[in-house]
Amino acid sequence: AADAAGAAAREAEQQVEKDIARCHQYNQLLASAEGHAMFKRVLRAWRHANPRLVYWQGLDSVLAPFLALGYREPVAFACLDAFVRAHLAGFYEPDNSEAVGHALATHRQLVAYYDPVLATHLAAVGFEPCHYAVPWYTTAFAHVLALDRLMPLWDRLLLHPALPHFFALELLLSRRDALLRCDFAAAVALVAATLAALDTAPLLARAMRRMNASPLVLSVTTIGTNSAAQQQQQQHGQQEQQQWWWHRALPAKEREHEDAPRMVLADFVVAAEEALVCDIRPAAQFAQVHYPKAVN
User: Fold this and answer.
1) What are 5-61's pLDDT values in tens digits?
2) Rounded to a whole number, what is the largest CA-CA distance in the chain?
């Protein structure tokens, strides 16, 4: 066990060495020998403090803003540790497939919800979120945005944990017309080029507006049970673990096969005011009772 731990530590050190050599090196401090040494010490301390987590490529980018701001190493470490726990939970587990799967499923469903034409085209050419959005989510965009464009996003992210989903959506929609003309290879090149010269301010403003106007269920992976729902179950003599289906946490693998987000009743009532409601039940059942203004 000790040999395995030592080998893992050496492998992590080697990966850190490679990563920091290309991590925001336009910044004077981060490109210096002193900056590289700070990266190594703080990341080593983070691994020591979180033995059940692992260093994945991109964690150096998450640390970069805190060092670039001039924080002392203990403060930078504390900020990194708190940020990962609060906003990147699950991404730095030894097996992060569940966290990554949920993030990508949410992104794909958001695109389908707001722009089904674009979503259909991207699926047809095989350009899936796994081809472009993984570093967006695992680093909260720190791996792909310049620091001066990243920090306004993070300022709002601290108050709005769902914001990365809507920023990712706006980023993609900002290149909608071009993407609709792209095959797979062209789409990959276009998104990569977009990030290099991205003006984040208008995208961030649109993302905030869309987030505030969107049903909550679009940006969460589960609608947790609440005391009222649990009391209702108990009143009906149900076991506590037998949750209503709309309160059940969905595994990432199950969400991969769903093209649209599930919607709880409260969000549906709000969304139905501006959306077309299609009732796909047989005509006889629709004639008996249906939601106002729904079409069959």
Assistant:
1) 677 778 889 999 999 999 999 999 999 999 999 999 999 999 999 999 999 999 999
2) 75
- Rounded Cα distance, 81 and 24, in Å: 20
Contact between 147 and 27 (Cβ < 8 Å): yes
User: Which contacts qualify for 141-144: CB closer than 8 Å, 24 or more apart?
Assistant: 141/167, 142/58, 142/61, 142/62, 142/64, 142/65, 143/58, 143/61, 144/195
| One-character DSSP codes across 16-48 | HHHHHTTSSTTSHHHHSHHHHHHHHHHHHHHHH
3-class SS of residue 260:
coil
Cβ-contact 118, 172 below 8 angstroms: yes
3-state secondary structure of 278: strand
CA atoms of 57 and 54, how far apart (whole Å): 10
Cross-strand partners of 131: none
- CA distances (Å), origin 245, targets 25, 122, 266: 49, 30, 15
Cα separation, 176 vs 165, whole angstroms:
17
Contact status, residue 285 vs residue 278, Cβ threshold 8 Å: no
